[in-house]
């Protein structure tokens, strides 16, 4: 395993990169060449497009692209595109959508649409002096200096909403922030926000250098550390909810409506107070959210980071969903902070992303926020419904069955046998192997 570092890897052709990897790391096994090439698109232009999304690309990595139908959202019917490899995610979302379609469906509200970014800087100066300079001179200059950058965004109804000076010197010596809020309309806005922030840093440096409000020693102490958007956007928030009379909570698991509502609320409350459960609970929510985020060409890492930061905003990690059962009404909702776009990035390039957005009726960014929150809520409802009734493994393992059988090289006839065999049984890995061996021994 004594591999040698490589110089100029990025300058090699695609085939050159593959040849080097196979020779250096894979003992020259040509089978690995075939594995990579079988995932290349036959359309050379389409393949080139995919390769240019990233760097040093040598192949494509496929994920299943599924559809969850029957989502009634704010009175409109949707079929949600979901790119996800985990068994039962699409099935659970679809089942939850069908459950709520005759109970009024999902209702959503955009609570706010602000995105944030910061210029982080060090300045050895008295806070009151800096605050006075910011309020009476710098803030106006920052808006003026970014007018060219924000012109197109302002035409679309967005732009910089506000800029504030934040004193963080109690947490780190001489540390301050310019905290800016933005409305980026239908774009995710990362490049726009970062361009504005970098101009803030330049303008502040120039204005302080020429100001008579500070001594030369104070001016020399200024350090612009970084200018960067924040993926924590607690004020870019959407609520999705479902509700109905408890007497209408018909479930085919055999327990009463009242018991279902009681156990469901208990499960949510446990996730609200117990971080170990909340982590798995919220992971399930993000199964639904991320699948649609990926299908629509948005950044699921940013979505995840923001959601989990929001879940811990009061110092303890908690559930993103909540439930009440007051006055005979079952109500289940999520408040999800999420920053997404429907223009820019992959949305104008990736053919399947364009298909997804067309399938959703070419939504605005706010409409996509609503769809994503609903997808997460539906996924969570489906998971909790299973957990408090039949248990999670019955449905999950049935969806996982084909994965196990494919690993064992089962024929189509054998797969059908197992589908019938487990119709009234809970799938387990041990039982699949036992029955597979018995079947093959016949």
Automatic annotation (TrEMBL):
GO terms for biological process: coenzyme A metabolic process. InterPro entries: HMG_CoA_Rdtase, HMG_CoA_Rdtase_bac-typ, HMG_CoA_Rdtase_cat_sf, HMG_CoA_Rdtase_NAD(P)-bd_sf, HMG_CoA_Rdtase_sub-bd_dom_sf. Its EC number is 1.1.1.88. PROSITE patterns: HMG_COA_REDUCTASE_4. Pathway: Metabolic intermediate metabolism; (R)-mevalonate degradation; (S)-3-hydroxy-3-methylglutaryl-CoA from (R)-mevalonate: step 1/1. It comes from the Bacteria. Gene3D superfamilies: 1.10.8.660, 3-hydroxy-3-methylglutaryl-coenzyme A Reductase, Chain A, domain 2 (3.90.770.10). It catalyses: (R)-mevalonate + 2 NAD(+) + CoA = (3S)-3-hydroxy-3-methylglutaryl-CoA + 2 NADH + 2 H(+). Keywords: NAD, Oxidoreductase. One of its GO terms (molecular function) is hydroxymethylglutaryl-CoA reductase (NADPH) activity. It is an enzyme of class 1 (oxidoreductase). Belongs to the HMG-CoA reductase family. NCBIfam families: HMG_CoA_R_NAD. PANTHER family: 3-HYDROXY-3-METHYLGLUTARYL-COENZYME A REDUCTASE. This is 3-hydroxy-3-methylglutaryl coenzyme A reductase. It comes from Chryseobacterium elymi.
């Amino acid at each position: 395993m004594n591999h040698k570092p490589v110089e100029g890897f990025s300058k090699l052709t695609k085939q050159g990169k593959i040849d080097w990897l196979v020779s250096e790391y894979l003992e020259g096994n040509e089978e690995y060449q075939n594995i990579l090439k079988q995932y290349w698109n036959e359309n050379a232009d389409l393949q080139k497009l995919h390769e240019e999304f990233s760097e040093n690309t040598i192949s494509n990595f496929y994920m299943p692209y599924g559809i969850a139908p029957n989502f009634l959202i704010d009175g409109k019917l949707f079929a949600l595109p979901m790119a996800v490899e985990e068994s039962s995610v699409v099935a659970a979302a679809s089942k939850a959508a069908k459950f709520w379609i005759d109970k009024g469906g999902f209702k959503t509200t955009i609570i706010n649409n602000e995105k944030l970014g910061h210029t982080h800087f060090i300045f050895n100066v008295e806070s009151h002096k800096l605050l006075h300079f910011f309020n009476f001179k710098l803030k106006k200059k920052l808006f003026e200096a970014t007018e060219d950058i924000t012109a197109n965004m302002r035409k679309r109804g967005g732009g910089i909403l506000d800029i504030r000076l934040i004193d963080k010197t109690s947490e780190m010596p001489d540390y301050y922030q310019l905290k800016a809020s933005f409305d980026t309309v239908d774009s995710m806005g990362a490049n726009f926000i970062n361009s504005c922030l970098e101009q803030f840093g330049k303008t502040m440096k120039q204005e302080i250098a020429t100001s008579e409000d500070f001594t030369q020693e104070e001016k020399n102490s200024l350090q612009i550390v970084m200018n960067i958007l924040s993926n924590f956007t607690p004020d870019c928030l959407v609520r999705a909810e479902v509700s109905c009379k408890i007497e209408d909570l018909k479930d085919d698991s055999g327990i009463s409506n009242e018991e279902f509502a009681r156990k469901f609320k208990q499960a949510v409350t446990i996730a609200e107070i117990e971080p170990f459960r909340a982590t798995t609970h919220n992971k399930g929510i993000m199964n639904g959210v991320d699948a649609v985020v990926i299908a629509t060409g948005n950044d699921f890492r940013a979505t995840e980071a923001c959601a989990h930061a929001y879940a811990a905003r009061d110092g303890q990690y908690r559930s993103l969903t909540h439930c009440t059962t007051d006055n005979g009404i079952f109500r289940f909702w999520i408040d999800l902070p999420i920053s997404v776009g429907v223009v820019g990035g992959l949305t104008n390039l990736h053919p399947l992303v364009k298909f997804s957005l067309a399938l959703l009726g070419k939504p605005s960014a706010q409409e996509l926020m609503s769809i994503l929150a609903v997808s997460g809520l539906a996924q969570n409802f489906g998971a909790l419904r299973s957990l408090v009734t039949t248990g999670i493994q019955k449905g999950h393992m049935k969806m996982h069955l084909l994965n196990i059988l494919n690993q064992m090289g089962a024929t189509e006839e054998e797969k059908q046998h197992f589908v019938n065999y487990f119709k009234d049984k809970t799938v387990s890995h041990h039982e699949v192997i036992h029955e597979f061996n018995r079947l093959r021994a016949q």
